[in-house]
Every structure is written in structure tokens, then in C-alpha cells.
Design brief:
The protein is an alpha/beta fold. The chain has 2 domains: about 425 residues, ANL, N-terminal domain (Rossmann fold), CATH 3.40.50.12780; about 100 residues, 2-Layer Sandwich (GMP Synthetase, Chain A, domain 3). The protein has a 9-stranded mixed beta sheet with strand order 2-1-11-10-12-13-14-15-16. Helix 5 links the parallel strand 3 and strand 4. Helix 4 crosses helix 5 and helix 9 crosses helix 10. The radius of gyration is 23 Å and the shape is globular. The site of magnesium ion (MG) has 3 residues, from loops.
Length: about 550
């Protein structure tokens, strides 16, 4: 298999000694990889973070600044009796304190777990509780609204540290502690010790807690270089929310480990502002998501304006399938196509990607990165069988054992066990591999459905629909039907200024039939103002389906606009 060929030319074990900076014997620490070793090697004055405040203010932090602040935060934790393996949660927007808390917790040997700042009390409770959060770093305002109502149900939560203005009962303002703390040393960790806890996006059901270890940093670092093309001094912008796994792996660890400068924008998506940031900060590498790309594609020429975006050398996308028109939009906007990348909370790092330097295959997720063996498999009785024939659909699986593979699902050993068979990790996504080894996303196993004997993946239908000039965004579900099993139903968001009248619908139907054939073209079309997205930007098809059928909506804690 072609993935095995790569395996023989790249071994994680060899990279470990060449790329990592052990603290003592075999022991490492993600903090040391991200910050500490740069300072030790004399690069303390390099810029680590350029923070852009919502109000137009900026703040620069060098690697030495981060070293000092993370050291103090680790000192605060140590003085509170919080140590190795203890869980430190954050409920913060994109503020400098978030980066300090993340890096300081890791430095201290504690486990970092970020939450979306937009979460309400219930999603906070259902993560901090099972996650055994001992410390939570947040603001007074967020605390009052989201934590105070459930604090009594969180017996493990001993310390709530508040950043910024204001106080709240039962909480400790962090700033005075930071001022008096002496920096604590970096704790050397066994590579298999827990470092990060990430909850999945909850697109297909209740979010799961994926546990990662310090050894994962090798995969962060290598994929940062191979896939994102990050080098020391590059200005890098990852637009992911800090509550999502991307916000840590590529919003903090990988770029800092490689000595890049992070651009951090406090504000939420705003097309014209984003274009200004790319231009003014001279961003070299940009990592964003299909939802944002689609929103930029919706801007009128007036809103797009004139920008010199020639600094952007490389652009990537993650989180959802990227249709060919999205790839091409990169060329138009930036002069470089968007390179799709695929991974999950469980994989901890990018596994499949359109690599820089190779031609992008639009619509494909790309090929496995070195050291990763991917296959399309079918489940057999008691195991799995790789499908070697190209272009056949099956479950996307990865040969277990890459450094950032999750080590458990929080409180769910049974589910963890079921995610592996015959040495493969089963991703729950369906894909096919073409003869050249490129992987094509078909859908999530939970979203794929059968209509009149055809197995249909929503993405295929959605990609064809968004090619229509009037369609901005599309989501497709299988709507149960007594005769066909399911019928194809599409929810469409139209471009601004387009009315969803009979003429537009006719034209979209004609386009879909031509592109997909009558069996796969949507039988039902509904125009909507927006689609339900998770906070990490994924379309929740299960919610559209539940609403369509009048069924309970299940866990909606990660919904963007509840
Ligand atoms: P849950 O597991 O709770 O349903 P989730 O799978 O959305 O949530 P994440 O781990 O944040 O949680 O997302 C990983 C998933 O996102 C992948 O399994 C895949 O379905 C989707 N995804 C990520 N990147 C891509 C991509 N490039 N193309 C298509 N799908 C992608
Ligand atoms: Mg998932």
C-alpha cells in the first residue's frame, strides 16, 4: 500500500531525537518545545504573539515574555498546590491570558483543557465535571453568567482564577498572584503523561473527551512544518476558536514550536477586518476553515475592497469538506489555492493534506502525511479489511501509533476500544482513495444514507449545489421515505440579494440533475437564512434531520446560535 511506502522512509522514533528538546533523559514538556528551548537557544527576543484587540489595540509578546508569564502562571498553580496531572480549564476568548494559562499549565505538568467562551452553563458543567477540572481560568463576567449557576455541581473545581477587571464570589483575581509569583521550573514529563484534553465538536452527538499526551508535540511540530510550511519568523494566522482542538495544536503549539509568530485576533469573523489583518500583519501562512472561506466568498466586490495580500505564501483549510470552488477562491483572493487538511480531535494533528509544493487536487483532502498510514477499510466480522481497489468507498482508517493519537476517551474505555480494530484506528468518516493515493471525503458514517439503492454522501451533493451561482451554502440530509428508504433533501442558503422564488429553485434543480443525475439530485429543497453550525464551524446535519422529522434535537450544547 502506498502509505506503507512512506512509513519505511520516515520513522517517528528517528524524528524524536532529531526534532525534540528533552529536559532530562527521555522526559519532555510541550511548553519547553513551544517556548522554553527558544529562550535557552537565544531567541527570546523573537516575536511569539502579535495580539490584536477588538478595540484596535495591539500587544506584542516575545518568547521571553511568554517564558516569564507562563513561568509565573506555573508558579501560581504550584503555590495553590496544583500540580502534575491536575486539570486546568480555560473559559476565555482570544486574549493573551489564554496563551499564558495554556503554556503555564503545561509547564507545570498540569493538563490544559480549553472551552469555547460562548458556552452556556450546561456545556461548562458537562465538561469541567467529568474532566475533573481543579482550576478554571475565566473572566468575572463569564464566571457570573456561565459558571456560577453550576459551581455547586463541580466539587473538584477548587480554584477559579479571574483575568481582567471585576471580581466574583468564590474566585481569585489572577493579576496580583501573577505579580508576586516566582516563576516555577518546567516539569519534565514522561512522554506518555497526559497533557491536553479536547472535547470533540459534538457534530454527530454528545461531545467526547479526547485525551492527549506530551509526546503529541512531535506530530504538532512535524505537521506544522510539512503541511503548514511554517518556519522560524513566519507570521502565521490560525483563525480557529481557542475552544476547538485546532486552536491548541495549530493555534499555539505547532507554530510556536517552529518559532513562528502568531497573529491572534480577539474579534470574531468579520470579512473586511480579516482582509485588513492579512494585509497589515503581512501574514505569510493562513489556516482557516470552509465556513469562513464561504463567508468571504459571499462578500460583494465592494466589501472585499482592494488589498495587497501578496504576503500570503500558503493557505490551508480544515474542519469540513472544502469544495473545489473554495479551493479556487484562494487563487482569486490570495494567489494561492486553499490546501485542504483532514484530522480530528482524536488524531491530535493533521493526518491527510494537500501538501505545499505539490499541485492541489481540488475537492480532495490530499494524501497522508509522512509517518501516517491511511486506508479505506470495510468492517468485517470482528475486524477490518483494507480495500485496495481505488475509488471504492469505505471507512477512513489510520494505522494506530502516531505520536498525537488520543490515548483514551474520557470515562469511556468501551468506546475507545471500539474505535480500534486489527491495529487500525477507525475514524467514523467515509472516504475513497483514488489511484494516485489522494483521499476524497464522502461523509460521516452517521450522515450517509441510502436513497433508492444509491449510497449517498451529503458532501457530494452539497458540492454540486454550491457550484450554482445563487447558492452560498448547502446542507443535505436523507429524509426517511417509505418507498425510497430516504430521499435527498437540501437546505440552501442563497447569496445575498437572491430571492428563493420558483425560478431560482427550477434553475438549481436543473443544475443539480445535470451534475448529479436524477437519482442523487435533491428531491426536496428548502431555502433557509442560515444553517445550524457548531462553534467550530461544522454543519450539524443531525439537527436539520431532527427538526425535519420533529424529533428531539439531542445535545445542542455546541450549537453556534442556540
Ligand atoms: P463529534 O465527534 O462530536 O461528532 P466532530 O467529529 O465534528 O464532532 P472534531 O474532532 O472537531 O469533532 O472534527 C473532526 C471531524 O471534522 C472529522 O471527523 C471530519 O468529519 C470533519 N473534518 C475535518 N476536516 C475535514 C476535511 N478537511 N474534510 C472533511 N471533513 C473534515
Ligand atoms: Mg468526530
Amino acid at each position: 500500500m502506498d502509505g506503507d511506502g512512506l512509513r519505511t522512509t520516515f520513522a517517528w522514533e528517528d524524528a524524536r531525537s532529531a526534532e525534540l528538546h528533552p529536559l532530562d533523559g527521555e522526559r519532555i514538556n510541550i511548553f519547553h518545545e513551544a517556548v522554553g528551548h527558544h529562550v535557552e537557544e537565544g531567541r527570546g527576543q523573537d516575536l511569539a504573539i502579535r495580539w490584536l484587540g477588538r478595540d484596535g489595540s495591539t500587544r506584542d509578546l516575545t518568547f521571553a515574555d511568554l517564558d516569564d508569564l507562563a513561568g509565573r502562571f506555573a508558579g501560581v498553580l504550584r503555590d495553590l498546590g496544583v500540580g502534575r496531572g491536575d486539570r486546568v480549564f480555560t473559559l476565555l476568548g482570544r486574549v493573551p491570558d489564554l496563551y499564558v494559562a495554556a503554556l503555564g499549565a503545561l509547564r507545570n505538568g498540569s493538563v490544559f483543557c480549553p472551552l469555547f467562551s460562548a458556552f452556556g452553563p450546561e456545556p461548562v458543567r458537562s465538561r469541567v465535571g467529568p474532566g475533573k477540572g481543579r482550576v478554571l481560568v475565566t473572566t468575572a463576567q463569564l464566571y457570573e453568567r456561565k459558571v456560577a449557576p453550576v459551581r455547586a455541581e463541580l466539587p473538584d473545581l477548587e480554584h477559579v482564577l479571574l483575568v481582567g477587571e471585576g471580581t466574583a464570589e468564590g474566585c481569585i483575581p489572577l493579576a496580583p498572584l501573577m505579580e508576586t509569583a516566582t516563576p516555577a521550573p518546567t516539569v519534565p514529563m514522561d512522554p506518555e503523561e497526559m497533557a491536553l484534553l479536547h472535547f470533540t465538536s459534538g457534530t454527530t452527538g454528545r461531545p467526547k473527551g479526547a485525551v492527549h499526551v506530551h509526546a503529541a508535540v512531535l506530530a504538532h511540530r512535524m505537521t506544522g512544518r510539512w503541511v503548514l510550511d511554517l518556519h522560524a519568523g513566519d507570521v502565521f494566522w490560525c483563525t480557529a476558536d481557542p475552544g476547538w482542538v485546532t486552536g491548541t495544536s495549530y493555534g499555539i503549539v505547532a507554530p510556536l514550536a517552529l518559532g513562528a509568530t502568531l497573529v491572534v485576533d480577539e474579534a470574531d469573523f468579520d470579512g473586511p477586518r480579516w482582509l485588513r489583518i492579512l494585509e497589515e500583519q503581512r501574514v505569510a501562512v493562513w489556516y482557516t476553515a470552509p465556513t469562513a472561506i464561504r463567508m468571504l466568498m459571499k462578500l460583494t466586490p465592494d466589501q472585499l475592497g482592494e488589498h495587497d495580500l501578496s504576503s500570503v505564501r500558503h493557505a490551508c483549510s480544515v474542519g469540513e469538506p472544502l469544495a473545489p470552488d473554495g479551493v479556487a477562491f484562494g487563487e482569486t483572493l490570495l494567489g494561492t489555492p486553499f490546501h485542504d487538511t483532514w484530522w480530528q480531535s482524536e488524531t491530535g494533528a493533521i493526518m491527510i493534506a494537500n501538501l505545499p509544493g505539490a499541485p492541489v487536487r481540488p475537492g480532495s483532502m490530499g494524501r497522508p502525511v509522512p509517518g501516517v498510514v491511511a486506508a479505506v477499510v470495510e468492517r468485517t466480522e470482528g475486524g477490518v479489511r483494507p480495500i485496495d481497489t481505488p475509488d471504492v468507498e469505505g471507512e477512513l482508517a489510520l494505522r494506530a501509533g502516531w505520536p498525537s493519537m488520543f490515548r483514551m476517551y474520557l470515562d469511556n474505555p468501551e468506546r475507545y476500544g471500539k474505535s480500534f480494530a486489527d491495529g487500525w484506528y477507525l475514524s467514523g468518516d467515509l472516504a475513497r482513495r483514488d489511484a494516485d493515493g489522494f483521499f476524497w471525503f464522502v461523509g460521516r458514517a452517521d450522515d450517509v444514507f441510502k436513497s433508492a439503492g444509491h449510497l449517498i454522501g451529503p458532501f457530494e451533493v452539497e458540492s454540486a449545489l454550491v457550484e450554482h451561482p445563487d447558492v452560498a451554502e448547502a446542507a443535505v440530509i436523507g429524509k426517511p421515505d417509505p418507498i425510497a428508504g430516504s430521499i435527498v433533501k437540501a437546505f440552501l442558503v442563497l447569496r445575498p440579494g437572491v430571492e428563493g422564488d420558483a425560478g431560482v429553485e427550477r434553475s438549481i434543480r436543473a443544475h443539480a440533475r445535470k451534475r448529479l443525475g436524477p437519482a442523487v439530485a435533491p428531491r426536496e429543497i428548502t431555502f433557509v437564512d442560515h444553517l445550524p453550525h457548531t462553534r467550530s464551524g461544522k454543519v450539524m446535519r443531525r439537527l436539520l434531520k431532527a427538526r425535519e422529522l420533529g424529533l428531539p434535537e439531542g445535545d445542542t450544547s455546541t450549537l453556534e446560535n442556540p
